[in-house]
Amino acid sequence: MNINDMVLVSVDDHVVEPPDLFKDRLPKKYADLAPQFLTKDDGTNVWSYEGTEVGNVALNAVAGRPKDEYGIEPTSFNDIRPGCYDANERIKDMNANGVLGALCFPSFPQFCGQMFARTEDKGVALAMLQAYNDWHIDEWCGSQPGRFIPLALPPSGIPRSWRQRSGGRRRREPRR
User: Fold this and answer.
1) pLDDT at 7 (0 to 100)
2) Is the peptide bond prior to 74 cis by the omega test (within 30 degrees of 0)?
3) Which of 123, 126, 128, 112 has its CA nearest to residue 35?
4) Residue 163 has pLDDT above 80, yes or no
């Protein structure tokens, strides 16, 4: 499809975060505290963070399925379209549907980062938030300039004094 023929912009899309989202994105002192993507004995995937398992990593990731199959499944990366978690594959899906751009809300950290806002140690919370935002902006949006609308998670629940400590931090180069 010719990009000039595309006029739709979706402002209510969602991304399923890839298992390696936090890999190499955190300062060493926080690396062991990063959320972990796990596969359970029954084949379902969960995120584990601060002793809590967040199940159903692909809640309602039903793209490409008939409406009668919509529900709280799938529960595994093996059961979802790659375009749910891979930006390059998402672009292929968007092209097939005539969609020019998309605003993609998070899944695992919740809509506005509540998962990190509830973290007691605000230094850890801020590191996780920054790692997520770096991935979302640099990797998800940055891999396809002009196609995704960046949606950074706000530092909700993180006092200004903590946010100011990270001011001037050098952004890492995106993985390509």
Assistant:
1) 80
2) yes
3) 128
4) no
CB atoms inside a 10 Å sphere around CB 78: 11
86's tokens: 């891979």
Query: Amino acid identity, residue 1?
Result: M
Tokens 């912009």 belong to residue: 9
What count of other Cβ atoms lies within 10 Å of the Cβ of residue 27? 12
The average confidence (pLDDT) of the chain is: 84
Q: Give Cα separations from 11 to 64, 101, 135, 172 (angstroms).
A: 19, 8, 19, 28
Q: Which of 5-9, 41-45, 138-142 has the highest mean pLDDT?
A: 138-142
Measured CA to CA, the distance from residue 100 to residue 59 in angstroms comes to 24
Residue 26 CA to residue 128 CA, distance in Å, equals 7
- pLDDT tens digits along 53-72: 887 666 556 556 667 766 66
- Per-residue tokens: 34: 């990063």
- What is the Cα–Cα distance from 60 to 63, expressed in whole angstroms? 8
Query: What six digits make up the tokens of 113?
Result: 């980062």
